[in-house]
Amino acid sequence: MSIRVLLADDHKIMRQGIRSLLEQQPDIEVIAEAGDGRAALKLVQETSPNIVLMDIVMPDLNGIEATRRIIARAPNVKVIALSMYLDTRYITGMLSAGASGYILKDCALDELIRAIYTVISDQTHLSPRISQIVVKDYIDHLDGRRPSALSFLTAREREVLQLLAEGMSMKEIAHHLELSVKTIETYRQQTMDKLNIHSVAELTKYAIREGLTSLDT
């Protein structure tokens, strides 16, 4: 029986390259592709993959939030972060969201295949450089480092924050999320209050600094 894989990355050429490599494996089948986290979430529900290879920095809904929702709705699905970033925020964010693995986009094909086989066996796979960062972060937390304020936001507040940072207006966000403008304004104000931030410009800088989005999404 083939391992069913869903690719989630906002760069089409990256998805095509990974698909081409994976399709050389006789027991791995790429069943769908998504260009952002929201599309990935929808496709998981429609196609029931075994594994999602998830980019992190994507427009609309980032890979961390998408992973959190996928695991909540389909706990049997395994998520592997496939990213160019070595930043602790991304690594701990993905692992906290429920990802079973984290590998870098510059890894060799054999590591990608090994990661897939590892997580499908209910184990965790981390690239060697990622493992070092995870250990360091664990030690830092033992030393009493404070968690990011982002952890105090709800999923909806983080979602609205990302969309605001990506330049959507309140009306556009309301339409996109199928909520009222008043509800979106409430989420924005709650976020500002929790973060002690007083403008959308400051919110945007915060979202980029904390890895919710980036300038190149």
What's the SSE blueprint?
Blueprint (H helix, E strand, L loop, with lengths): L2 E6 L3 H11 L5 E7 L2 H11 L3 E4 L8 H11 L4 E6 L4 H10 L3 E4 L4 H12 L4 E2 L1 H15 L12 H11 L4 H8 L3 H15 L4 H10 L8
Parallel strand pairs: 1-2, 1-3, 3-4, 4-5, 5-6
Helix pairs in contact: 2-3, 3-4, 7-9, 7-10, 8-9
Features:
217 residues, alpha/beta, Rossmann fold, Arc Repressor Mutant, subunit A, six-stranded parallel beta sheet
Question: Any overview of this molecule?
Answer:
The chain is of the alpha/beta class and 217 residues long. The protein folds into two domains: 3-141, Response regulator (Rossmann fold); 149-209, Arc Repressor Mutant, subunit A. It is built from ten helices and six strands. It has a six-stranded parallel beta sheet with strand order 2-1-3-4-5-6, sandwiched between helices. Helix 4 (88-97) links the parallel strand 4 (78-83) and strand 5 (101-104). The protein is globular, with a radius of gyration of 18 Å. The chain starts with a strand and ends in an 8-residue tail after the last helix. The mean pLDDT is 88.
